[in-house]
Amino acid sequence: MTIEKTPLEGCFLIKPKVFKDNRGLFFESYNQQVFQGKVGFAPNFVQDNQALSKYGSVRGLHLQKGEFAQAKLVRAIQGEILDVVVDVRPGSTTFGQVYCVVLSGENNYQLYIPRGFAHGYSTLSEKAIFAYKCDNFYAKHAESGIIYNDTTLAIDWGIPAAEMIISDKDKILPTFEAFKTTL
Ligand SMILES: Cc1cn([C@H]2C[C@H](O)[C@@H](COP(=O)(O)OP(=O)(O)O[C@H]3O[C@@H](C)C(=O)[C@@H](O)[C@H]3O)O2)c(=O)[nH]c1=O
């Protein structure tokens, strides 16, 4: 397993060591000892989530605020997604910067997203199964987010606008400018 820094402070791309044989393959999808050794701390993951999405689905950008903030370790078990994170930690040297990476059931990459980031993903394949670990519980009242098509962030989700599938909740998220006033 390799753990690489991304351009965003505290956000890491994890590439597992995959063992292939005539039965299929095997890899460690999380190893606390390795994570601690390479990153310097071990998150206390308390909730695992899984979602199935159709092609064109865009989920996000989401985060939970304050004491309910969540760090996440995300991956695509099947299919291909474009994972997108935005550093919205006040005072961070990479505040407002966006990082995107393709995660798939083929590359088995994972992204460690620290607390205080906004997160979203689009589904590039016909369908995708997305799974993630969180270091804090779901708290509906602490949910916040930024609109997926914010013009200042200008995220390319890899999906034509006419084919995007977006939840009603996500369609009314604030712009990045408006979100910033809530920080
Ligand atoms: C996230 C979440 C949702 N739910 C419920 C609430 C709702 O009825 C249903 C679907 O929720 P949502 O529409 O918020 O699901 P979704 O849009 O997939 O939300 C997720 O998006 C990605 C981008 C993230 O980063 C996650 O942290 C999470 O916010 O599931 C839980 O019970 N527990 C949870 O942890």
TrEMBL record:
It catalyses: dTDP-4-dehydro-6-deoxy-alpha-D-glucose = dTDP-4-dehydro-beta-L-rhamnose. One of its GO terms (biological process) is polysaccharide biosynthetic process. InterPro entries: RmlC-like, RmlC-like_jellyroll, RmlC_Cupin_sf. The keyword Isomerase applies. The active site is at residues 62, 132. Transmembrane segments: none annotated. Pathway: Carbohydrate biosynthesis; dTDP-L-rhamnose biosynthesis. It comes from the Bacteria. GO terms for molecular function: dTDP-4-dehydrorhamnose 3,5-epimerase activity. The record marks 138 as: Participates in a stacking interaction with the thymidine ring of dTDP-4-oxo-6-deoxyglucose. Belongs to the dTDP-4-dehydrorhamnose 3,5-epimerase family. Catalyzes the epimerization of the C3' and C5'positions of dTDP-6-deoxy-D-xylo-4-hexulose, forming dTDP-6-deoxy-L-lyxo-4-hexulose. Homodimer. This is dTDP-4-dehydrorhamnose 3,5-epimerase. It comes from Mesonia hippocampi. The lineage of its organism: Bacteria, Pseudomonadati, Bacteroidota, Flavobacteriia, Flavobacteriales.
